[in-house]
Amino acid sequence: MPLDFEIATRTLDNGLRVVVQPDHRVPTVTVNIWVGVGSRHEVAGRTGFAHLFEHLMFQGSRNVASGEHFERLMAAGAQLNATTWFDRTNYFETVPTGALELALWLEADRHGHLLDAVTQENLDNQRDVVKEEKRQRYDNQPYGTALIDVYAAVFPEGHPYHHPTIGSMADLDAASLEDVHDFFRRYYAPDNTVLTLCGDVTAERGFELVERYFGDIDTSAQPPRPLVEALPPLQAPVRIDRREEVPNDRLYIGFRLPVDGTDEFLASSLAIDLLGGLTTSRLEQRLVRGERVANAVSVSAMGFVDGVSLGLVVVDVAEGEDPERVEELLVAELEAFADAGPDPEQLEALRAQCERSWLSSLADQDERADQISQHVLLHDDPQFVNHHLDRVIAVGPDAIRAAADRWLRGANRATVRYLATDAPTEEVA
Fold first, then answer.
1. Could you read off the pLDDT tens digit of each residue along the chain, which spans 429 residues?
2. Entry pTM
3. What does the DSSP 8-state code read for residue 34?
């Protein structure tokens, strides 16, 4: 079922890749920018820089005062934000059509001329903001450090995905102003950036405006480092135990998966969804509805581009149940699925669910723009939104069983267990 969204692309002389997806149903335009820098680009002793810049980008630039970016766009009726992840940093706003030029001017000023405003005072201020974010989102939240532990258990020391996006507060404290300036110069450049316009704008008008505001920004990105060697599945189980004051025991089970964008990753992600993403899935039926040893099961497949991806199963253990037994039952279901492959009826149900959720997400202008930027930046595939469903439907049961057999066996897992207690301790095995 190929879709037919109109998608036009152009690359400016400075290397900026521009995509315009016209959609005139409502008078708004989403401006979505993906920069090819995330935490995987950081080196030892310099972690947290990518996320730091997500904050610094709102603190003023050559012609924009601190806080003015937010203030002017909000006054124009915009919704805006930014996010940082392993493989990228993303800046986005949705504005009324009449405010498109304002949005582009503001984005061009900070993407091309940020460093004029990155002073020692701004750096110190935003370091403190990041520290407070870490305290609130990680340190003082139940299960807040679980994913940090999962990354450390699944990916070896020194691997690009071993450390979390939030980074090390010690590294941020040690960073000089010149260190921060150097990081920006290395990665924030047109030839390391994708800009997508999605909404009430024609392709011709979109290209004209982007050229007007971004065309004179110099190309300066450093050549990308080579991708690391692909990681095989884990060779033996890994376990990290956290004994903390949490509402209930919880298991986080991580798996290495193939690199994003490949047929094998797609098959692996479908295998994970079949294990736990349906009300009729194996883990739901066995752990929650059958044995009643768990209150809930959730699954996800996180696609990464640097040699490996991450699969995750999260199990909320029912009160009074033994986490050891719950994990044993889960492993039994992993093994049974890897041996037998998917049930035909469940596979059809999953395909229907994928179609519904994908079409629903693309109905959202913001989400459509984000998908386009992502797949142009990371996979050089501007037509991804049009052909993704066809790829999903093409994945057969044999491919899913083979992916589960290689990547989702019980022996390949890394388990982080949060065990409720009044006496916090840590055990690693």
1. 679 999 999 999 999 999 999 999 999 999 999 999 999 999 999 999 999 999 999 999 999 999 999 999 999 999 999 999 999 999 999 999 999 999 999 999 999 999 999 999 999 999 999 999 999 999 999 999 999 999 999 999 999 999 999 999 999 999 999 999 999 999 999 999 999 999 999 999 999 999 999 999 998 778 778 889 999 999 999 999 999 999 999 999 999 999 999 999 999 999 999 999 999 999 999 999 999 999 999 999 999 999 999 999 999 999 999 999 999 999 999 999 999 999 999 999 999 999 999 999 999 999 999 999 999 999 999 999 999 999 999 999 999 999 999 999 999 999 999 999 854 445 555
2. 0.95
3. E
Contact status, residue 85 vs residue 39, Cβ threshold 8 Å: yes
With left for phi above 0 and alpha for psi between -120 and 50, is residue 380 left, alpha or beta? left
Give domain 238-428's CATH architecture.
2-Layer Sandwich (3.30)
Place domain 8-214 in its CATH homologous superfamily: Metalloenzyme, LuxS/M16 peptidase-like (3.30.830.10)
The pair phi, psi for residue 31, each rounded to 5°, is: -105, 115
Name 62's Cβ contacts closer than 8 Å, sequence gap at least 6.
109, 112, 113, 114, 116, 117
| Alpha-carbon torsion, ordered 379, 385, 390, 393, to 10 deg | 90
- CA–CA distance, 421 with 411 (Å, rounded to integer): 28
Beta-carbon contacts of residue 322 (< 8 Å; ≥ 6 apart): none
